[in-house]
Amino acid sequence: MCCRNCNMGPCRIDPFGEGAHTGVCGATAEVIVARNFGRMIAAGAAAHSDHGRDVAHALLLAAEHPESGYSIKNVNKLRKVARILGVAVENRETKEIAIDVAQKALAVFGQQEGEIPFIHLAPEPRQAIWRRLNLVPRGIDREIVELMHRTTMGTDQDHRNIMLQGTRAALSDGWGGSMIATELQDILFGTPSPVRGQVNLGVLSQRDVNIVVHGHEPVLSEMLVLAAREGELVNLAKSKGAQGINLVGICCTANEILLRHGLPVAGNVLQQELAVLTGAVEAMIVDVQCIMPSLPELCKCHHTHLITTSAKGRMPGAIHHPFSEENALQTAREIVREAIENFPNRGRVDIPDEKMDLIAGFSHEAITYMLGGRFRGSYLPLNDNIVNGRIRGVAGVVGCCNPKVVHDQGHVELVKELIANDILVVQTGCSAIACAKAGLMIPESAEQYAGKGLAEVCRTVGMPPVLHSGSCVDNSRILIALSEMVKTGGLGRDISDLPVAGAAPEWMSEKAIAIGQYFVASGVFTVFGVGLPVQGSEVFYRHLSEEHETMLGGMWAVEPDIHRMASLMIDHINKKRKALGIDKGKERVLFDMEMRRELAI
Ligand code: SF4
Ligand code: MSK
Predict the structure, then answer these.
(1) Under 8 Å between Cβ of 315 and 272
(2) 20 to 30 Å CA-CA from 196: which of 11, 48, 204, 357?
(3) Is the distance from the beta carbon of residue 290 to the nearest atom of ligand 2 less than 6 Å?
(4) How confident is the model at residue 43 (pLDDT cuts 50, 70, 90)?
(5) Ligand 2 centre distance from Cα of residue 214 (Å)
(6) Among candidates 525, 556, 121, 586, which has minimal Cα distance to 385?
(7) Which of 2, 31, 32, 33 to mutate to test ligand 1, by most ligand atoms within 8 A of the CB atom?
(8) Are strands 466-468 and 556-558 parallel, antiparallel or unpaired?
(9) Is the pLDDT at 591 greater than 60, yes or no?
């Protein structure tokens, strides 16, 4: 393991052999890995939270300057979020509420004292644990700054104390920055509901102008969607010899436009270079996060214009089109126009004939509706089916792809094994795209891959056994869904009582570490594949696993072998079922549509 937190180093220490056992300053293995781990959490939480801040800014613009192109699509959600943030809604105009919500959300980032508001959506016993351990975030930026401070040379030298702050910063992401991003995006662009789409490189078109959007923030991609549908630009594309405009996505931007518009997904993070290599991409438009620095060189091999848009993410060799939320739609039009003008420069094109259908858009609200029906939306049927054993439990399988393993293999094999064991899987990020490509997100996959009980539930409700819930910031949807399962009743008093588990089989980004820590701190058993850079310190690894379980009810595990990872998750879910006294399934009636209609309203 290595520390380069000061210039007396870098210090490499050898925890297992004859080499140095401490850094030059005396830092032990556990302190070095705790500081490194803490800094990964800080970076990941910062990325998600800065995304949330931009969305809050866009909401303010939508309310104050509709000419920016942004508008409020979901007034119900605006009112719901307003109540959480303590904004008055009665007898007020939508615009007034939206301004207050945006300003309150922006204030949460710089808040210095108190508790961030979305924390209060967690079950009461969970909040009590956080308060007892002094883990409730005071403000998002504050927790990230304090974590960076504590991990400088010569400050916090107790690995447990470092991780208390690491946990507080991670919670400020999951229940703060990421949740603000998700909830405010739903207000601005609509809450996702089940929608059909297609996935894999075969969604690129021979005959259309192909525009690939890649990165994370829908404040850009939503405007590109609007621009690409404008008649004037479509006609311009036709005048250049194309049939139309084909807007597709990569990575989490892909998930955002898929969930809200059903637009095609060209691939996940490891397919961004492959999309360019088809020779069919007129423009790849990027904003922030997960964008390979290799792209400018690669784009030189073809006619593809690589267009950066964020002041936070410039790339030498790319064309920079500054995107400001103030004139968002106008900038989007200019970018689409540039892509169209590039169509005649296309050379040889080679698009793989690979694509797959999927259904995506399972927001927490959509799951409530699917399970409970229009008038009595509820998680009760889900809880009921977990109690009666048709569904053994729920797993969140999320995160990146990593070239240390065969592309997508970790995600697909894990998810197949989980659903075969009657575990309903909820997904986000690149992991969701991996399983969609493998055909796991169509309802028919339940018959082919799911266990008998889960397949029966999927057949009744008409849903796939693997639910696509969105992008990386949308992991906050899973937190809300877990809280809802607790509040619905029958499965314990806290998230840590639920028969659920989480996994990131191919993680690579620092953001995944922040996500892992906030899930663990929320009470979820979470397994990561491809190793975790803390395993050189047995003391610290024991802290993340056994000691975290005692303190928080959730714990980390690391297991690169996918089948052993599945076994760990299934064993954990079985352990929780036993603790709840539901390990021997009892017969319960499955709610079909007719029975739902009979329910009193
Ligand atoms: Fe080495 Fe300590 Fe400096 Fe880290 S902080 S580089 S362990 S001297
Ligand atoms: S994009 S963070 S590679 S999931 Fe959210 Fe994919 Fe991981 Fe980026």
Answers:
(1) no
(2) 48
(3) yes
(4) very high
(5) 11
(6) 586
(7) 32
(8) unpaired
(9) no
Q: Which amino acid is at 463?
A: M
Query: Do 428 and 478 touch, CB atoms closer than 8 A?
Result: yes
Q: How far apart are the first and last CA of the chain?
A: 60
Q: What is the C-alpha separation between 484 and 476, in angstroms, rounded?
A: 12
CATH of domain 23-189: 1.20.1270.30
What's the CA-to-centroid distance between 61 and ligand 2, angstroms?
27
CATH 3.40.50.2030, the chain: domain bounds: 201-345, 364-580
231 falls in which pLDDT band (50, 70, 90)?
very high
Could you tell me where in the chain the CATH 1.20.1270.30 domains are found?
Answer: 23-189
Tally of residues, the chain = 601
Q: What percent of the chain has pLDDT over 90?
A: 90
Copy the structure tokens of residue 133: 């351990």
CATH architecture, range 364-580? 3-Layer(aba) Sandwich (3.40)
Q: Whose CA is closest to 335, among 358, 310, 360?
A: 310
Q: Is residue 511 in contact with ligand 2, taking CB distance under 6 Å?
A: yes
Atom 7 (ligand 2): residue with closest C-alpha?
Answer: 400
Q: What is the pLDDT of residues 521-538, one digit of tens each?
A: 999 999 999 999 998 999
pTM over 0.90: yes
Q: What is the pLDDT of residues 364-402, one digit of tens each?
A: 889 888 876 655 668 898 999 999 999 999 999 999 999
**Residue 212, ligand 1, Cβ within 6 A:** no
Q: What is the amino acid identity at position 380?
A: L
Q: Does ligand 1 lie within 6 Å of residue 8's CB atom? A: yes
The DSSP call for residue 388 is T
pLDDT at 597: 52
Q: Cα–Cα distance between 545 and 430 in angstroms, integer?
A: 26
Topology (CATH level 3) of domain 201-345? Rossmann fold (3.40.50)
In the prediction, which pLDDT does 370 show? 81
